[in-house]
Amino acid sequence: MTRAAGLCLLLGGPGTCDTIIDLARQFWAEAGESFTRRQEDALRTLMVDASLGRAWLAQYRNEPAGFAVALYRHSIGYGGRVALLDDLYVVEKLRGRGLGRRMLRAITEDLEAFGILQVHALAPRHSAAADLYESEGFLCSRLQLLERPFDQDLPDPT
């Protein structure tokens, strides 16, 4: 748990799970997407299986203020465990107060103290989130992220 100037960051788990799920629904709704049962189950699994990563609940003055999720992977290139900051969300009415920046700093400190060697972050290009990450020392990767959904047919190579 991290506390600073009204902000409290709690590690996700059974006691914070339902609140984090509610915030995840808000996050996805703001993005114009639905939060599916499959996504909810994946988030619940993360909060009971520490080998997968971490979730955090942010509270500001004892009220839910946001959440974040980092997923782990073992990297040969980096020589150990790295994390992907998959979600970082601050509720709309609390934006503009520096909470996202304070959350990000506390999360990266927590991950480094846990032995994570590097943190990667996903954000839409030219977004406020990308600007925040870059202002906190995240660099644009030379690598391109490619996705291959398994629920779609492959294009015909001919």
Keywords, please?
Aminopeptidase; GNAT_dom; 30% helix; 6-stranded mixed β-sheet; acyltransferase activity, transferring groups other than amino-acyl groups; 158 residues
Total helical elements: 4
Briefly, what CATH class?
Alpha Beta
Order of helices and strands: EEHHEEEHEH
- CATH homology group: Gcn5-related N-acetyltransferase (GNAT)
Under CATH, the topology can be stated as Aminopeptidase
Main β sheet profile = 6 strands, mixed
Counting helices, strands and paired strands, the structural category is alpha+beta
**Residues in helices, as a percent range:** 25-40%
- How far do the termini sit from each other? 55 Å
The residue-averaged pLDDT reads 93
- Name the CATH architecture: 3-Layer(aba) Sandwich
Shape: globular
GO molecular function: acyltransferase activity, transferring groups other than amino-acyl groups
Protein name: GNAT family N-acetyltransferase
Domain N-acetyltransferase: 15-155
Organism: Pannonibacter tanglangensis
Report on this model:
- InterPro entries: Acyl_CoA_acyltransferase (IPR016181), GNAT_dom (IPR000182).
- GO terms for molecular function: acyltransferase activity, transferring groups other than amino-acyl groups.
- It holds the Pfam family Acetyltransf_1.
- It comes from Pannonibacter tanglangensis.
- Residues 15-155 form the N-acetyltransferase domain.
- The protein has 158 residues and is of the alpha+beta class.
- It has one domain (2-135): Aminopeptidase, CATH 3.40.630.30.
- The chain is built from 4 helices and 6 strands.
- It has helices spanning 17-30, 37-46, 99-113, 128-135; strands spanning 2-4, 7-11, 53-60, 63-75, 80-90, 119-121.
- The chain has a 6-stranded mixed beta sheet with strand order 1-2-3-4-5-6, with helices on both faces.
- The termini are far apart.
- The model has no long low-confidence stretch (mean pLDDT 93).
